[in-house]
Every structure is written in structure tokens, then in C-alpha cells.
Amino acid sequence: MKYNKLIKEALKYRERAYVPYSKFKVGAAVLMEDENIYGGCNIENASFGATNCAERTAIFKAVAEGNKKLKAIAVVGDLSTYTSPCGICRQVISEFGSKDTDIILVKSEEDYIIKKLEDMLPKAFTKEDLEK
């Protein structure tokens, strides 16, 4: 499977989540244009506003390493259902991806669905909108 390694990384990072308040673990892994993979987990904070989602943790990690072109992202939360990125994460995905970026919603290594960013965030506000 094309995204097998990406899915395994997301599952691994889910176990690293710091979630003492919500108890809702989320893991994410991003595949960048240069084929490097970066993982992240959600990290909560007592102030709640300082909490960071797994998707943004993984993307920011990639960007901090110089990778700014996102090909795909795998996301896993509750293992009994598919967990979708929140609105802020969808906007961040659109900043570094494209409407064709694959978003893999994972329950397990064998159970996942693949969506396009365009389907999850139609008519996204992008940097091109700022140039008009």
C-alpha cells in the first residue's frame, strides 16, 4: 500500500499524545514532496488555548526542517471511528498542500479512507487570495 509507512507513523505518534485533560489521543504523519515523513501528536495545556493538534505538530515539524510541500497526511484519533482534522488544521494543510493533497483518515493499518483536501475544505482561503 502506498501509504502503509505513513499510517504506521500516525499510529505510533498517537501513543505519544499528551492528553491529560481530554484523554483523546491523536497522531498524525505527513509525507512531504521530498518523500520525508514527519510525525506529531496532540499536546494539551491547562490553558486549553495553548493546545496544539497532532496535524499541526507534524506539519510544523516538517516546515522547521525546511520542508514546505505537503503530499499527504494520515490522521488517527478514536480507533473506533475516522477522526477528521479540525478547521484550523485543514487551513494549515491547505497552506502547505494543494486541493489534491491526500488526507488519510485512519482507524487501523487495514482500515482507513482517503479524502482530498478539496473535499474536506472546499474553496479554501489561500495565499493566492491575498495576492488579488
Automatic annotation (TrEMBL):
Q: Report the record's Gene Ontology biological process terms.
A: nucleobase-containing small molecule metabolic process; pyrimidine-containing compound metabolic process
So where does this one cross the membrane?
none
GO molecular function terms noted in the UniProt entry: cytidine deaminase activity; identical protein binding; zinc ion binding
User: Could you tell me the EC number(s) of this protein?
Assistant: 3.5.4.5
Q: What Gene Ontology cellular component terms go with this record?
A: cytosol
NCBIfam families with a match to the protein in the record: cyt_deam_tetra, PRK05578.1
Task: State what protein this is by name.
Answer: Cytidine deaminase
